[in-house]
Amino acid sequence: MNEYISMLYLWLKSAHLIFVIFWMAGLFMMPRFFVYHQEIAAGSDEDAKWIDREAKLRKIILNPSLVIVWILGLVLAYHVDAFSQPWFHAKLLFVIGLSAYHGWMIAYSKKLALGRRTMSDKNLRLANEVPGITAAVIVILVIVKPF
After folding, report:
1. 52: helix, coil or strand?
2. How far apart are CA 120 and CA 3, in angstroms?
3. Could you give the CA distance from residue 141 to residue 98 in angstroms, rounded to a whole number?
4. How far apart are CA 71 and CA 98, in angstroms?
5. pLDDT, tens only, 45-83
6. Is 85:118 a contact under the CB 8 Å cutoff?
């Protein structure tokens, strides 16, 4: 099995990075959707369109990308023995945090679909910064390997 992964390593790594990009794109888009969605009256035709857009983003981009990123990431980490390296533990912690953020966004999109608007536009705009900052930290950990 390890020999097979070695042959495909660069392809798996490329696929991992491609799906990270898809995931990050969705993580950047969804909070922006929330800002615009909250401006619409609950129960209106436009509200239904935003609910549909958010559901499609979840089902077509966000959730599949998350699953693929995790599967490929764990396979790659196992293959290069990353679990024994301190920088990887820090990266894993940030990826878990980003996954939790993903879960929060899924939950908030479902709240919006029910007509509950519990966050201000300002807080949603601030939440939109979370994936960018987290991605920057993860890239530094992976490339620089500071420890």
Report:
1. helix
2. 52
3. 15
4. 15
5. 999 999 999 999 999 999 999 999 999 999 999 999 999
6. no
Give mean pLDDT, residues 102-107: 97
The structure tokens 């020999």 sit at: 3
For residue 5, what pLDDT band results from cuts at 50, 70 and 90?
confident
For residue 41, report the phi and psi dihedrals to the nearest 5 degrees: -65, 130
Contact 99/66 with Cβ under 8 angstroms? Answer: yes
Name the DSSP letter for residue 42: T
- pLDDT of res. 20: 98
Closest to 144 in 3D by CA, of 95, 90, 93, 99 = 90
Tell which phi-psi region holds residue 81, choosing left (phi > 0), alpha (psi between -120 and 50) or beta: left
The yes-or-no verdict on residue 1 having pLDDT over 80 is: no
Closest CA to 119 of 102, 105, 101: 105
CA-CA distance, 132 to 98, in Å (whole number)?
10
Mean pLDDT over residues 111-137, rounded? Answer: 95
Residue whose tokens read 């798996």: 12
